[in-house]
Amino acid sequence: MKLLSMTRLLADMQTRVNAAGLRCFDGDIDRFAIFSLITRESIRGGARNSGISTHSAAISLGRSFETVRRHVNALIAAGLCVRLHGGVVVDPEVLTRPDIAGLIALTHDSFVCFVQALYDAGELPVLRPSAVRYDRTVGVQAAVDVMLATADSNQAIHGNWLDLVIFSTILAGNLHRAPLPPRRPVEGVRFGPDHAVRASVLARVLNLSETTVRRRLGRLGHAGGPVVRLRQGYIISSDWMKRPDAIETSQRTATSVRLAIAAAAAQGFPFDAPHTAYQVGPPPPIVF
């Protein structure tokens, strides 16, 4: 799997899933991320699962115990999660709610779409077929692993999760405006005015207020930062993408993606025919 050739596909997946999560959690990306981790742990263990402790969740997410505890308590108060003797799990009845079930299905199918695109481009690693029958919970777990691993690997340069979400969405928008010929690396693209994405568009795509988006853009657009403001909107700095720390982050992210894909393959994901794994179908394209 080429390091930079998957950038657009990963940015698309992140944007699609984060937009749906922000819609469900009233723009609170921290709460969505914590709920996603708890959901992953809940479905992995099935009926015998005793949950994940707040302490373990804080370590996994690289967040303070107090921050995670506050969000966990809010999830419990909202009836989304329940506390068991061993930790916190998603209330099984919540998984059948239309909004949460739809979010989980979209998360799963966004991972399938990501893998399908890699498959179509001939960029999947060589994987040994598994005799295990595929269960869609595997795809959900893999999607969450990819999302959280991306956030973890970017923590040094994007300490705030919302900054990473906005950065990734700008990148996805810039690349949508710069169609890439097959196998052309992203590093060969220099974004200009025609690729720019307006703050109002970012707010609409991510289901956030424009005030919130503009405030975060102010941080990301500081001198030497990853985002450049043009009259037509915002672009990712091509020079910033070539910085050693940005390249190192991309390498760590790619490694995490490979591990998630390999784990899903071992648990029966049909990598020789990814389209057969869809729960609902290919998710609709992002409209910038």
Descriptive key words:
single chain, 288 residues, mainly alpha, two-stranded antiparallel sheet, 11 helices, 4 strands, 5% strand, globular
Walk me through this protein's architecture.
With 288 residues, the chain is mainly α. It has one domain (7-102, 127-266). 55% of the residues lie in helices and 5% in strands. It contains 11 helices and 4 strands. The chain has a two-stranded antiparallel sheet. It has a two-stranded antiparallel sheet with strand order 3-4. Helix 1 packs across helix 7. The longest helix has 23 residues, at 98-120.
Q: What layout of secondary structure does this protein have?
A:
Blueprint: H1 7-24, H2 29-45, H3 54-61, H4 65-77, E1 81-83, E2 88-90, H5 98-120, H6 136-153, H7 161-176, H8 199-206, H9 210-220, E3 227-230, E4 233-236, H10 238-241, H11 244-266
Antiparallel strand pairs: 1-2, 3-4
Structure in a nutshell:
This protein has a two-stranded antiparallel ribbon with strand order 1-2. It is mostly helical and about 290 residues long.
Strand percentage, roughly? under 5%
Q: Terminal Cα separation, in Å?
A: 27 Å
Low-confidence stretches: none
Summing up helix and strand content along with how strands pair, one would put the structural category as mainly alpha
Q: Outline the biggest β-sheet.
A: 2 strands, antiparallel
Mean pLDDT: 89
| N-to-C series of helices and strands | HHHHEEHHHHHEEHH
Shape: globular
| Count of distinct structural domains | 1
Helix content: 55-70%
- For the secondary structure, the number of strands is 4
Strand line-up in the sheet with most strands: 1-2
Radius of gyration: 19 Å
Helical stretch tally:
11
